[in-house]
């Protein structure tokens, strides 16, 4: 039995839309920051049992097509026909726009490959994790991570830009709704790709954002990182609002917090909002400003639930 842990990541330049659904190839490259507070632990054991089993939070669940794809990939690489018992626990709300699929499939890739006796490189693990969830390709690494869109299965992988982050960037993850979202990311992406008249412009601007974000990270410019991330996120969400029929992942509290963030900036604090396919905002700021920002938020929204995150580590094996 092998046990692995992987952490979620927040995309600063978003991945939104697949040009090849079967191979999980994105239309554009993306760039993320792995967070230190949210993670998934997954164990895998291959045995001579009759079929694969998936136990999530102590309850047996159906084996999804994505889970089966990763297990089948591992079996093919290992030359094995054994079935797997997979047990997984999320230390992050599931399907709430907090990247639980990223940490889940990254942990699965590490645990399953080790349980099968494989010694895969991190690039190979990134590709394997991508077969379950695109953003999981980035959760193999800590710190800032770039996922290359690539042109085929082997050229679409993530690699670290800076795993040891030595400047005080912080992310305040605000939980306004921990329920599973009504439109899952895959369905939302496909709707945007096929029906938003703005989708091609989104891809073009997102690719251009990669070089700008990379430069901001190299300069350790937290304000520029935040500005770029906020603009990129809202452009992504514009594709959902312009889809046919239109839809949104925003909750009323999401918009309220976004407006508060705009007000916070007028007070001279660098604070920027980003969010993936879910209602829960992540606020990018300087570590020294966290207490002031939280104080302002709590004054307007009492009993606010939030988690302070800093750059987190890459996926790792927990047991041999």
Automatic annotation (TrEMBL):
Q: Which GO terms describe its biological process?
A: isopentenyl diphosphate biosynthetic process, mevalonate pathway
- Which segments constitute the Mvd1 C-terminal domain? 172-303
The enzyme's first-digit EC class, named in words, is lyase
* Keywords in alphabetical order: ATP-binding, Lipid biosynthesis, Lipid metabolism, Lyase, Nucleotide-binding
InterPro entries attached to this UniProt entry: GHMP_kinase_C_sf, Mev_decarb, Mev_diP_decarb, MVD-like_N, Mvd1_C, Ribosomal_Su5_D2-typ_SF, Ribsml_uS5_D2-typ_fold_subgr
Stated EC number for the protein is: 4.1.1.33
Task: Tell me a Gene Ontology molecular-function term this record carries.
Answer: diphosphomevalonate decarboxylase activity
Identify its protein family: Belongs to the diphosphomevalonate decarboxylase family.
What name has this protein been given in UniProt?
diphosphomevalonate decarboxylase
> What is the originating organism of this protein?
Lapidilactobacillus dextrinicus DSM 20335
């Amino acid at each position: 039995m092998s046990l692995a842990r992987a952490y979620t990541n927040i995309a600063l330049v978003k991945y939104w839309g697949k040009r090849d659904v079967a191979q999980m190839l994105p239309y554009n490259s993306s760039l993320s920051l792995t967070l230190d507070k949210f993670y998934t632990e997954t164990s895998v054991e291959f045995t001579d049992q009759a079929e694969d089993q998936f136990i999530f939070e102590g309850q047996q669940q159906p084996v999804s097509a994505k889970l089966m794809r990763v297990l089948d990939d591992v079996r093919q690489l290992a030359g094995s026909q054994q079935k797997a018992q997979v047990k997984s626990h999320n230390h992050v709300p599931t399907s709430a726009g907090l990247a639980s699929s990223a940490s889940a499939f990254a942990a699965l890739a590490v645990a399953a490959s080790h349980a099968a006796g494989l010694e895969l490189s991190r690039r190979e693990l990134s590709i394997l994790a991508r077969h379950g969830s695109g953003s999981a390709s980035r959760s193999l690494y800590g710190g800032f991570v770039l996922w290359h869109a690539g042109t085929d299965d082997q050229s679409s992988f993530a690699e670290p830009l800076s795993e040891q982050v030595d400047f005080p960037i912080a992310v305040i993850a605000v939980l306004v709704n921990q329920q599973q979202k009504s439109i899952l990311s895959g369905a939302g992406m496909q709707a945007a790709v096929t029906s938003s008249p703005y989708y091609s412009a989104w891809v073009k601007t997102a690719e251009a954002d990669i070089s700008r974000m990379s430069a901001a990270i190299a300069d350790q410019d937290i304000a520029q990182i935040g500005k770029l991330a906020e603009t990129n996120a809202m452009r992504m969400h514009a594709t959902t609002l312009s889809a046919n029929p239109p839809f949104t992942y925003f909750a009323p509290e999401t918009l309220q917090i976004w407006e508060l963030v705009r007000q916070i900036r007028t007070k001279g604090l660098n604070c920027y909002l980003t969010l993936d396919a879910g209602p829960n905002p992540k606020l990018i700021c300087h570590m020294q400003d966290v207490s002031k920002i939280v104080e302002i938020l709590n004054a307007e929204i009492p009993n606010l639930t939030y988690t302070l995150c800093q750059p987190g580590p890459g996926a790792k094996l927990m047991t041999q």
